[in-house]
Write a structure and sequence with these properties.
Blueprint: E1 8-11, E2 17-20, H1 42-45, E3 48-60, E4 67-72, E5 84-94, H2 96-120, H3 128-133, H4 135-159, E6 185-192, E7 204-213, H5 232-240, H6 268-283, H7 286-289, H8 296-320, H9 325-339, H10 357-374, H11 386-416, H12 423-432, E8 434-440, H13 447-462, E9 466-472, H14 480-483, E10 485-487, E11 495-502, E12 514-524, H15 529-535, H16 540-558, H17 566-580, H18 588-600, E13 604-609, H19 615-631, H20 636-649, H21 651-660, E14 665-666, H22 669-674, E15 686-687
Helix pairs in contact: 2-4, 2-6, 2-11, 4-11, 5-13, 6-8, 6-10, 8-9, 9-10, 11-13, 16-17, 17-18, 19-20, 20-21
Amino acid sequence: MSSKEEPLAYEYGKPNLCTLLPSVTTECTPVRPALPTCINNQKWHALHTNAVVHRYMRESRELGNQERYASVQTSVGQRVHRKAVFIDEIMADCTVNSIVPVRLLQFWKSKLNAFYRFIQEEPTEPGMENIRAETSVTEFLSHVLATVALMEGNIQTALRGSCPTFKSSTEKTNLDKAFQPINLQLQSLVVLKENFPVVEHMPQFRYNVTTVGAFTGYHSRNSTCLDSLPGLCTLWSTEATRLPGPMVDYRRTSRVEGSDEQFVPYPAALRMFKLILDIADTCLSPSVVNPCYNSVAQTEDRKAKLRRLLEQVIKEIDDRFHQSEELQDFAVLLRSALYDESRWTHPWSLDPGPGSWPSRIRRPLMSLLLMDIQDWNPPYPVNFPGDMIRMYTRECLVMSQMITATIACIMNAIYTTDLLSKRNTLNSIKTNGLLVYYESLLSCWEEEKVMLEDIVAGMDLLARIKFTVCVGESWELVNTNQQISVESPTGGEMEIFLPRMPSTTKFGYNGEGFSFRVYPVFLNVGVNEKASLTERSNEIEFQHDINKFHGKRLLQFSQYAACIDSAMLSTARADFARELSMHTQKQFSLLQRAEKLTEALGGLRVTMCKSAKDRTAMAVTLEQMSHVQDHVEFTESEWKAMLDDMRKNGTRRENTRKNTGQAFYAFSPEQMSHLPYLLQPPPGSYSKGET
């Protein structure tokens, strides 16, 4: 973009600002059709803000009957009377980028506060004072308070009226925004074609990709998230393999065979800690502590949840500590509390007090947790038990970023596509899960390997979360700030309620709200100079393991999912399976085959790298042009020329300016030499700079 050119801005209602990028000089007569109608409606603005649009036109002319394309300016109200194809690039911020982390942090902070009160509250049963006096417990509780303070600081920052929803790549180390994803953008490609006099009524093809920086706690440089250690994948795997039996005891999340397999087993101590957090939060909830101020149904729901949680704890003891007499004695105490019907007859029997129900379970639970902590055997020397809560904090950082980006991706699909229009597709989502393919361009070298490990570990947890779509009366009721909520209806699970949608939409969905789970697939191919180093070392094996595991998941999903075009699916599946069996250097074609298979399966797309600014821009523009090619005929030179123009003048170039203040991709000449040819930006659009 020339420094002399000012973007044309159109306000469709504050705070949503839509900017149209200036054109470049072309041989074609400038044509000024209206901006895409798909972004000029209340439903679209409920989720999107600060949109940037870049329009291209390819027209047929009588002179030699030769087709050509141009990157053009547009203005509202003018008509076009010629055979043309309009290609719109749309990039927008997402309104949920602040509110989703807030809801998650409020959820986690409530549990940590309840845990602290649960341990510290009087009266004290016999033996509890000795546990409290232990240095390890004191240190543990101090780390709990530090994590609560970090979460509260992030909540207050996000709730400030002046706080933008966008977190730039230069804010990686900003602790006040540690739980927000970096450079989250909703990217869309819209193709309008055929000979129509009014652009707004042209048939449309739309393709969405969500772009975001790596989900990681590594950037925060904070002692509360173990930033000096390897990623969660390494920290979890070594400890977990020492323990017998299954590491996660959840219900089956999908009917797809193998869907519950995990890349890395979840640590038993962290699982126990989460159970105790849920128990403490439930014990100290208003429905239990002050049942006289709540309905009988609310109180009974909480009591039923307590039963389920205690049953899980008892099962843990029986499965893993059957040889420990002390813990078996604790199991007897827990069973006594669980099955003592006299203490469940009246709600008031759960009030805190001498010999109360919470007091009867507090010491056994803390003793069990401390034993788990003592058995911890991490791969690197760390300071326990304080580091366990810090590892939990790092998990929260990763999951907050991952869940936020995933919700943005899901809502974008619901609001702008026909995701829910076909009943067989909706039934598949309910039974098999919603396929979301996360594509990464990270290397397996140093800090980027840490990020990869955080992401891979988070994918296993993401599959356990239940999402619920609620139904309202009209699109005017959509309010992302008020309608997103997070709950824990059953032990060990998280349920996220998305903003309500109308019972009848223009896409044909007519029904009640429904729940589903995400079926995450994650593939990674490093493409930069650090990836070249890993190709010559054993580090690349980690990438191969990731792709083998998640590639298998994608193939398994393709056997169960409903699709429209079985021939397209069969071809895409065979192409991907063949590519997956190969191991070549910088095998970017594997990601492209996965994109095609995901499209055939009706899945959603997320692309990421370290900052989602440079490598991501190259990958997204290439993916967009592959779809343009499906609708517009190009010679090889024309196709490459438009790809270069999209990178030089399009929305992703604007994204670099938005992040760093400089409209240049951050590639040095040396880095350029390591990028695959189709991922290299055009001359004049890159320079060595901040990432």
